[in-house]
């Protein structure tokens, strides 16, 4: 791992915002964020106009990693059904980690409740992209109603993520993939 003097203060702030907001929620204070990053408040405001802007930038920065975690390792060879199921397999694998607190994008939407908040805008776009990915795979896989199936899949993803993140459901037993398999079968998905 790089020492903090080789990582820019902006990047340290974004990393701190990602860690603390995921662990403690988006209401984490500026002082705590700056202390975690080893950056002064004055410096923080030189990089970001507000804590809200920093949180949105932190979420934006995590999108490639989030997408990569859910992307099938061989998307061209995998069937649409396999690509969808892979997302839920990854969710199940991630959910058993002690530091798993659910989907960071869903958490932001639930905590902020303001659809115009900069972080909510980023989070909504991520969730919409996941729904579109499910819809496209459902269509390619011959689902009778790809739009409905995509909505159902997002509902299962978000519900399973939230329940596992709250530690009220254990997904390590394949519950999410079994639920999704039933939905794919019912939708006529190949």
From TrEMBL:
Alphabetical UniProt keywords: DNA-binding, Transcription, Transcription regulation
Start-end of DNA-binding region: 29-48
Any one GO molecular function term: DNA binding
Domain HTH tetR-type: 7-66
Presence of the UniProt keyword Phosphoprotein in the record: no
Pfam families xrefs: TetR_N
Keyword tRNA processing listed: no
InterPro entries recorded: Homeodomain-like_sf, HTH_TetR, Tet_transcr_reg_TetR-rel_C_sf
Stated name of the protein: TetR family transcriptional regulator
Lineage of source species: Bacteria, Bacillati, Actinomycetota, Actinomycetes, Kitasatosporales
């Amino acid at each position: 791992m790089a020492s903090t003097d080789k990582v820019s203060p902006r990047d340290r702030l974004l990393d701190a915002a990602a860690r603390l907001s995921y662990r403690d929620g988006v209401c984490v204070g500026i002082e705590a964020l700056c202390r975690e990053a080893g950056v002064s408040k004055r410096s923080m405001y030189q990089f970001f106009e507000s804590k809200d802007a920093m949180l949105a930038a932190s979420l934006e920065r995590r999108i490639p990693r989030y997408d990569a975690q859910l992307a099938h390792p061989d998307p061209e060879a995998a069937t649409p059904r396999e690509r969808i199921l892979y997302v839920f397999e990854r969710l199940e694998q991630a959910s058993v980690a002690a530091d798993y607190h659910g989907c960071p994008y869903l958490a932001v939407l639930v905590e902020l409740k303001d659809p115009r908040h900069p972080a909510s805008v980023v989070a909504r776009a991520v969730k919409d992209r996941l729904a579109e990915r499910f819809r496209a795979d459902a269509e390619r896989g011959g689902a009778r109603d790809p739009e409905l199936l995509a909505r159902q899949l997002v509902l299962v993803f978000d519900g399973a993520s939230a329940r596992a993140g709250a530690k009220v459901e254990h997904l390590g037993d394949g519950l999410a993939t079994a639920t999704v398999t039933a939905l794919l079968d019912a939708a006529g998905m190949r």
